[in-house]
Amino acid sequence: MEADYATLKDRFVKSQKLLVNLKRMFKIKDFKRTAILKYAWGLVPAGDDVNIEQRISILADPQKYVTIGDVKEAKNENNQHVYAYVTDGRMYFTANFYDLPKDDQVGTIIHEAAHLFLDCYDHFLLKPPHTPTFEPDQEGVAYKGPAVMTGYESEGFHTLTDNAPHFTKYNADSYAVAAIMAWRIKDLTTEKEIEQALFSKHAFSSTRFGQDLHVHAGPSGSKSKSGSPKSDSGSGKSKGKGRRK
């Protein structure tokens, strides 16, 4: 399937608008920045807020470009919930992507960009130290490893931010959720208004906690001795899957 470039151009422009707003918000150390940081990443260790700000700046770059690939798989019942994925350094959008609400399309692009440019993860070991891992996606139903929690807003997002804030800077959905929420609160002026806005509804309209709404498999990854993840993005053997509805 050939990509709908007119639609994608509009959504990429909107995603940059949200990311630039998020970047601007992180430059000012006030209660808005604190609220977004806590909501999307949790109570992060000292210094991680600076690293997260640097990573946001990488995404919020109008000069950065994405190579779009044509989707070769035909639409069928096996991929009806696959909206977008990243592999071989390219971003792919399935026919299902265009059925999403506009704002969810924008959020999905930010999520995939976090995989593409920041080597972000979606899964983390359930037990401490909650190391990021790609293995469940790489092995699929054959995975027999340790239990994992996900960073998807539709699944274990808040479990991750509560229990593993030292690793949330590597969570792809944190950047998408933060960008959407920062746009929601940009014109608010009080802490009470901001708190109410953040918890009034989810960032993605399709999110319903308790349902399997979002899957993604990234490039093969490993972790360094210090515990920080790095990806072998040159392998090109795995495919990422986007949001589920």
UniProtKB/TrEMBL annotation:
The record's region (Disordered) falls at 210-245
Compositionally skewed regions (Low complexity) per UniProt: 218-236
The protein's matches in Gene3D superfamilies, at most eight in alphabetical order, are given as: Collagenase (Catalytic Domain)
A Gene Ontology molecular function term for this protein is: metallopeptidase activity
Protein name (record): Lysine-specific metallo-endopeptidase domain-containing protein
